[in-house]
């Protein structure tokens, strides 16, 4: 800390207002801002250290974290008052954009302007709530009645019994803070914070923090357009989870194997279309390669490098903790290039995608920090930018593109492109992504709307909004508990989700502008982004120096100038059709045939690859697919996926009828079926042998690698 210079400068500035130094005022103001930013940086560093200690469970860390957060609020309020008191209009010339922007951000730091007692109440509530959730050790994991939050998350994905799921979730709800306290003493602080900035409503205040005028209005408008797709997905999930009678009714959150219902990916195995080869392989290969924790992050960092953004700062790998809890938390000490990850080692598609998003966020921070104009406040202002959400989200979309999956050794490109199958695979990928993003989009807006309505006092006039669960039933068609909202740091700290909501919309727009530039659907999107990443670089390098909506037209290559829902709905086109067909089987399906890829493809390739020692990724893939063929037998979730894909509506849609319509001769089909069965039996034997060899060679390789690593470390 270097507070000694500040008072002197401050004094000088206050005297200069009416004096002859007028032309030097600007220089003075600039120095004052610079000093204040340095102090902010010191605070940030100390808060980051305390947060980190609390995350990794250092003794008495919660106390220190609370202390840091309290002091921070007092400090921030004081700096704002100082700038306010010296600032006069003549200090800033009209073309002094950067300084003007910094001053504005420092003058409006958000909730820290609350009265000290109120600020302390806010951070105490939030910090304590999260700490209690994180460190409770008596969650009910079904088989184990005393487990940790990490184990709870993991067990949820594997539990199939409804009653047990309900019990597991109930054990978690007990750890949440008091809803009454939140409603009476925490949420209303938002009204007081908005008053500090003379906003008449909290909505205006949130719009200003998201830096989008009429932001919530825009969000509602966007949601109205996305809602039909969400409702179709919700109906389809209801149908597959609870049968036809449940269509149109709210889905109980615990049936979604989720705690808050903002992510439905855990039930995907009940929802897969008939030909879900890509899901099965992706799921299996992630497990076989153990692509969780640091490995997933290293793979994600590789994608970022492939996009031509360069490597990440090396200390990320030495200082992060990949053995903690999910979802990932990024701890930034606001010194350029000093960011750490705290996350878990569990392997899942969701964690794999989260890793890509997190790594891109770190890269974002690095790029912003590279530009010398971006001092503290232009990097770390208390603002909710959609860009800051969308660009990292775009990286996670890219991680599930065919070429990226191929490079990661998760699904071979030749298998993806086999005959008419690509659209079947695309549909499955869209389903994976939709199950993550559509419920989130809804949840974000629901949480913001509910808080605003409660604050506006609609409680008395309409019973529906009086509780979160009632509101959510109507708004989301999800049947949840009242308290579960209080597990979310954005809620306990009174932050708006608006930026995240808009980021989710924008990410598909970014995707679309790049995808439209591709020569064909089969081209490599990541490769294309890598040769043309300047749009992204430019936007990232400006940090908070420019309002994010003003950067949209350049970012979107001038095709669009604002937020549009169409990129998102276009992205999910195949899924949308599929959902229509599932919900109304009488519709003409027009479905393209799926052709089982020949099993020998990997066998043929095995030989040349064998010689190509560098091509490790390919080798892994094939070895894994073969292992997978053998392993599926008693694998719980996999087995379930196979079983469920043969029941219910899909049965009605059995493609025999469709084949006839398309003029195919059934006899021919059955002939070829027998032929394939014959071949398959013969191949199965070969495959088994090769798999054993491949696996042996694979583990031998791993051993060699380990030895190599060990010796290079020594
Ligand atoms: C869980 O922990 C509590 C307190 O530590 C103990 O009383 C209880 O017996 C434990 N339950 C199980 C099933 O281990
Ligand atoms: C908001 O501010 C007013 C006036 O300072 C105060 O009386 C009230 O208690 C504050 N609200 C909350 C929730 O603390
Ligand atoms: C809010 O309004 C009051 C009274 O008009 C004024 O004194 C104060 O400076 C305003 N605050 C801000 C942040 O504009
Ligand atoms: C950074 O500041 C310099 C000097 O103030 C200015 O010339 C330059 O354009 C700024 N760069 C950006 C990216 O705003
Ligand atoms: C349910 O939500 C819709 C908007 O999504 C709203 O128009 C309607 O009034 C709500 N119903 C009730 C009973 O509040």
UniProtKB/TrEMBL annotation:
Residues 1-20 form the signal peptide. InterPro entries: Peptidase_M2 (IPR001548). SUPFAM superfamilies: Metalloproteases ('zincins'), catalytic domain. The chain crosses the membrane at residues 674-694. The keyword S-adenosyl-L-methionine does not apply. The keyword Nucleotide-binding does not apply. Keywords: Disulfide bond, Glycoprotein, Membrane, Signal, Transmembrane, Transmembrane helix. Belongs to the peptidase M2 family. This is Angiotensin-converting enzyme. It comes from Plutella xylostella (Diamondback moth).
